[in-house]
Amino acid sequence: MAFLDALLHVSSTGTLICFLLLLLVAYLLFLRSQSDENEPPGPKPLPLLGNLLMLDVNKPHLSLCEMAKQFGPVFKVYFGPKKVVVLAGYKAVKQALVNYAEAFGDREIMPLFHDFTKGHGIIFANGESWREMRRFALTNLRDFGMGKKKIEEKIIEETCHLREEFEKFEGKPFETAQLMNYAASSVISSIVYGRRFEYTDPQLRTMVDRANESVRLSGSASVQLYNMFPFLGPLLKNWRQLMKNLHLDIEEISELVNGLHQTLNHQDLRGFVDSFLVRKQYAEDSGEKDSHFHEQNLIYTVGNLFVAGTDTTSTTLRWSLLLMAKYPHIQDRVQEEIDQVIGGRQPVSEDRKNLPYTDAVIHETQRLANIVPMSIPHMTSSDITFNGYFIKKGTCIFPLLTSVLWDEDEWETPHIFNPNHFLDEQGRFVKRDAFMPFSAGRRICLGESLARMELFLFFTSLLQYFRFTPPPGVSEDELELTPAVGFTLNPIAHKLCAVKRL
């Protein structure tokens, strides 16, 4: 119904004519596509609409999981006129992204993704530019402390600021979203820009709020419609708002980068931007031809790092606190373990190995929350025969991470919050191969080590100091775990009480 509603909003004589012409072209292409031999199975599509009427456009990952039960781990589905091959279940996703990493390693640049970065940056890029930017980002993020003691100190400093903010509510109900976002964004800002932002800084607030809105709108039904029929863009309110946000993002990042450029000291680099500016200057001075170290790649790479470093971490932390309030007996066990192992001192990364239950709860939160359910679409870089099916070069691929994290063949209780998924009979932490919240292969999240450290330090520090409960008059059963609609799956708006522990 959301798809039909979106369609009605953009109807007019001109668009109806366009739709009729597009319908004819799509039907002819559809007839031609039937001649492809040995393609993956899938539901029969309608001309133009494809299989849209079979999908819940607000929760397409769940619709695709149901289709996988009928068509198997590799199947095709049409999002409008666009054919997509879906990979479902741990075995198929792992085999494609890891064993055939090169063939399945390109990024599908959907119209909205192209609007966002024009092929620059890291997340929505391919080819040599992507390889150069990812390599440079990984090297420099590590140089500035990602996964090391240096960044641990910055995260610990941030946990102290976050606890102080929680204390200000004096145990009364509050929304956790903004504070979690400010904390995560301050950590990534300290790496990218070389400094953290105060939570009261209006620049931080506008950047974070705008990023959150863009992530939410990117998953809306009308924007999905735009990805299928790009000519509709100017007629769609959500697309227009996204383009406005993008313009403001570029202005904001450019202003911050220019400020750093004016105070750049080659002997004392403060963060990722400084390193990029030095490398860019070297390329210009040496007459390096076709260098990928130019202003557009800098702006869009910084934007990628800021959004990715804020949204997924803060969203996972919000889920973790919501789950603790909903399941107080699990919160009890986490706090008992923290009290026994750490006591009143500040938690550090080294404590993880001595906190198996706490670590299991964090992992189980990531598994059940499933915040990037369809990953970011991939694209085949060459023709390939996979699982007995022929898949052409340039085919859009959805690695359905939901089907991995909730795989009934891999998890004992896939739809239930169960930290025992990550514990053996002696209560020791165990790794699980089907744990893929960061995806896998060539496109695995480059900030995984940073995110893992943040999740552990923020979660243990907050649980050490506070007891999380529903607001007065709300029972644990009334806390809702159905996610909000968006590109990533956030908890719906809710309030919790952070009661200081004695």
UniProtKB/TrEMBL annotation:
Chain sites annotated for binding heme: C445
Give the primary localization class. endoplasmic reticulum
* Keyword annotations: Endoplasmic reticulum, Heme, Iron, Membrane, Metal-binding, Microsome, Monooxygenase, Oxidoreductase, Transmembrane, Transmembrane helix
Q: In its keyword annotation, does this UniProt entry include Secreted?
A: no
An annotated Gene Ontology molecular function: oxidoreductase activity, acting on paired donors, with incorporation or reduction of molecular oxygen, reduced flavin or flavoprotein as one donor, and incorporation of one atom of oxygen
The cellular component terms of Gene Ontology attached to this UniProt record, alphabetical and capped at eight, are:
cytoplasm; endoplasmic reticulum membrane
Give the matching Pfam families: p450
- Subcellular location(s) per record: Endoplasmic reticulum membrane; Microsome membrane
**InterPro entries membership:** Cyt_P450, Cyt_P450_CS, Cyt_P450_E_grp-I, Cyt_P450_sf, Cytochrome_P450_fam2
Q: What superkingdom does the record give?
A: Eukaryota
Q: Which cofactor does it need?
A: heme
Question: Does the record's keyword annotation contain Membrane?
Answer: yes
Q: Name one GO biological process term.
A: xenobiotic metabolic process
Enumerate the transmembrane spans. Answer: 6-30
> Of which family is this protein a member?
Belongs to the cytochrome P450 family.
Q: What is this protein called?
A: Cytochrome P450 2K16
Organism whose genome encodes this protein: Danio rerio (Zebrafish)
Tell me the lineage of the source organism: Eukaryota, Metazoa, Chordata, Craniata, Vertebrata
